[in-house]
Recover the amino acids of this structure.
């Protein structure tokens, strides 16, 4: 769900911003740990594999048990505590202020929006775990230990949302949501322990639908908002093909490109009337840009690239759905 996605992206950027002395700190590479962190991305040598080489070093504040390390750990603890208190208050006002009900279960499979919300839960779990891992590594915890604790954090954070949803007449506690939360957290966990899986990353893209535009303009009734504008959301698995190819084949694949498989849906809100309608699933195949492979390693630019790596850039796509296959010139 978008609410956990926003939370996780905030955690990730908070970590990036704190790593002033280490411009590429937090970029995950094989063997990364609290004592092996990214320092620089050297210039690509023409005619060879264009994947940037990575030189590792120890973050300055983790090299001793002095004041700098304690400050970093205190800052991370404060980020977790303050951020979660603020988010709880936001959720309480925005999501849990409606009609209350006795706690109940809601097995909400295959509704009008065809489980699109479940994929949002999965990427939310993934991003929460990744953001938590980066914060804990900034506090000088080893990569695998940080990943385990970050997954525990993500699971607890998303579980509390489901529990509170269970007391709201509009939502209910959703075991399917909990399942997809766990899938997303599991992807983050797999990246720490199975290095080849790091080439596969959940990403997302969004374009506001006509139904949302009409709702916001008061042309149709309803309370559609961007967080539940499922027809405009596409969730992808983006593959860094270059890292998976054998050495002899790498020159045939531009390392800047990822191959992505996505899921989105047609309108589930009629943009003309605001009525609920049953959407169709849309399976998308496309190529998009891997931001981490863009040139430049200035600290501010690396921070931006780290955030953008979770976004699927607009691109041509091939769409599969009931009724046939078609080319989409520009999918957002």
């Amino acid at each position: 769900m978008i609410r956990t996605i926003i939370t996780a992206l905030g955690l990730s950027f908070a970590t990036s911003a704190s790593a002033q002395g280490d411009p590429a700190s937090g970029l995950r590479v094989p063997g990364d740990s609290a004592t092996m962190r990214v320092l620089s991305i050297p210039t690509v040598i023409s005619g060879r594999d264009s994947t940037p080489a990575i030189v590792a070093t120890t973050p300055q504040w983790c090299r001793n048990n002095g004041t700098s390390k304690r400050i970093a750990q205190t800052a991370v603890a404060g980020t977790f505590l303050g951020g979660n208190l603020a988010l709880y208050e936001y959720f309480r006002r925005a999501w849990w202020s409606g009609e209350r009900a006795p706690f109940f279960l809601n097995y909400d499979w295959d509704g009008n929006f065809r489980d699109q919300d479940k994929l949002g839960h999965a990427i939310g779990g993934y991003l929460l775990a990744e953001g938590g891992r980066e914060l804990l590594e900034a506090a000088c915890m080893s990569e695998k230990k940080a990943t385990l604790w970050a997954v525990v954090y993500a699971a607890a954070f998303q579980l509390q949302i489901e529990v509170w949803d269970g007391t709201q007449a509009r939502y209910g506690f959703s075991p399917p949501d909990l399942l997809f939360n766990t899938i997303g957290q599991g992807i983050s966990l797999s990246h720490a322990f199975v290095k080849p899986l790091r080439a596969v990353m959940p990403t997302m893209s969004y374009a506001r639908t006509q139904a949302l535009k009409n709702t916001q303009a008061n042309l149709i009734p309803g309370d559609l908002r961007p967080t539940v504008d499922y027809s405009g959301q596409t969730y992808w698995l983006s593959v860094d093909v270059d890292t998976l190819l054998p050495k002899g084949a790498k020159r045939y694949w531009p390392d800047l490109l990822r191959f992505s498989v996505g899921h989105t849906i047609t309108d589930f809100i009629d943009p003309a009337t605001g009525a609920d309608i049953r959407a169709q699933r849309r399976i998308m195949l496309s190529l998009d840009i891997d931001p981490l492979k863009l040139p430049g390693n200035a600290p501010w630019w690396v921070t931006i690239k780290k955030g953008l790596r979770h976004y699927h850039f607009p691109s041509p796509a091939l769409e599969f759905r009931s009724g046939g296959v078609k080319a989409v010139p520009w999918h957002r």
